[in-house]
């Protein structure tokens, strides 16, 4: 178990989180805002920090930035807590150096699970570093382990960020041998005047973009009144890709409200995106290549819409999620494959 510093200005939220962490066996110290949290961290460095984003005084982003600038606290992992309304700013927190995040409201078990995952990741990084050393380097490591460990993690983070930037570069063909592909119909069979529908579509697509990127999508592509999100490849996030994909689907479905028609299909398989460039005018973008994965995810979305479901997944996705997701009814797509309803996230 770990020494955890909990920084949360909401008394009720802080009490719930503190109780859950102590029950899980962690040693917990509490701070009501960012300034006091930094003072506490510098006085007795914790093994992990759980920090709210929106607080009076300095924000959670600024807490992370201050820690990453402090040689004593630079390697202390940070899990950020944010409301869904903060989703458009979450990239800022991850860029500042946060290790993971949870959206409010969250279950106590999810908080404990996220902390365990971050701690396990840090332990694995240290072990991989030590195992790779031999001879003189290993002898030097015994004398300078902490310094070299910080340098290793800094290089690793730079490489991950560089690969992310390369994968997101405009105008590049991309191939994923295995990715989780999410197709969301944002308006369904909505009717109305063209200006009204245009405004609704703009708002719905912006919400979808924010939500998918919040949960770590590698690509988000407008698709008429629909949106395609691709989750795959390398990521600095600790939450498994399949769990991030289904969390994104459930979060978008919940944010739409029952009064708005929305249906989502989620499937796992190979997919390619090709560059669509206009060298004369400078426009660029990407488009999915037709294939089994796109056909299947389209059929799943259509099945969800026809069955009155919000989210439909394939057996391949359901098997990867196991007990992490609550499943409901079953049906068959127009192509004849099984489709499974997602009714919520598991405990």
TrEMBL record:
<dbReference type="InterPro" id="IPR011006">
    <property type="entry name" value="CheY-like_superfamily"/>
</dbReference>
<keyword id="KW-0597">Phosphoprotein</keyword>
<dbReference type="Pfam" id="PF00072">
    <property type="entry name" value="Response_reg"/>
</dbReference>
<dbReference type="InterPro" id="IPR001789">
    <property type="entry name" value="Sig_transdc_resp-reg_receiver"/>
</dbReference>
<protein>
    <submittedName>
        <fullName>Response regulator</fullName>
    </submittedName>
</protein>
<dbReference type="InterPro" id="IPR050595">
    <property type="entry name" value="Bact_response_regulator"/>
</dbReference>
<feature type="modified residue" description="4-aspartylphosphate">
    <location>
        <position position="52"/>
    </location>
</feature>
<feature type="domain" description="Response regulatory">
    <location>
        <begin position="3"/>
        <end position="119"/>
    </location>
</feature>
<dbReference type="InterPro" id="IPR029787">
    <property type="entry name" value="Nucleotide_cyclase"/>
</dbReference>
């Amino acid at each position: 178990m770990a020494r955890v510093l909990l920084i949360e200005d909401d008394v009720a939220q802080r009490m719930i989180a503190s109780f859950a962490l102590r029950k899980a066996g962690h040693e917990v110290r509490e701070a009501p805002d960012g300034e006091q949290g930094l003072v506490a961290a510098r006085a007795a460095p914790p093994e992990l920090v759980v920090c709210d984003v929106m607080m009076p005084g300095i924000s959670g982003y600024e807490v992370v930035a201050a820690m990453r600038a402090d040689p004593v606290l630079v390697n202390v992992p940070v899990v950020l807590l944010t409301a869904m309304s903060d989703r458009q700013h979450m990239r800022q927190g991850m860029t500042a150096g946060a290790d993971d995040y949870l959206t409010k409201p969250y279950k106590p078990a999810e908080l404990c699970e996220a902390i365990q995952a971050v701690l396990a990741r840090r332990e694995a990084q240290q072990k991989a570093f030590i195992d790779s050393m031999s001879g003189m380097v290993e002898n030097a490591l015994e004398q300078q382990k902490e310094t070299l460990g910080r340098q290793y993690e800094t290089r690793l983070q730079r490489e991950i960020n560089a690969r992310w930037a390369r994968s997101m570069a405009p105008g590049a063909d991309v191939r994923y041998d295995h990715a989780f592909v999410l197709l969301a119909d944002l308006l369904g069979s909505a009717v109305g005047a063209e200006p009204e529908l245009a405004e609704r579509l703009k708002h719905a697509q912006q919400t979808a973009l924010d939500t998918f990127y919040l949960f770590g999508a590698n690509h988000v592509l407008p698709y008429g009144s629909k949106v395609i999100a691709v989750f795959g490849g390398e990521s600095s996030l600790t939450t498994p890709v399949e769990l991030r994909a289904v969390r994104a689907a459930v979060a978008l479905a919940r944010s739409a409200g029952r009064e708005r028609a929305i249906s989502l299909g989620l499937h796992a398989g190979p997919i390619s995106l090709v560059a669509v460039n206009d060298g004369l005018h400078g426009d660029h973008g990407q488009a999915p290549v037709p294939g089994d994965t796109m056909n299947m995810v389209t059929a799943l979305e259509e099945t969800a819409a026809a069955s009155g479901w919000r989210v439909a997944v394939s057996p391949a996705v359901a098997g990867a999620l196991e007990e992490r997701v609550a499943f409901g009814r079953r049906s068959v797509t127009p192509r004849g494959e099984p489709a499974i309803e997602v009714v919520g996230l598991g405990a």
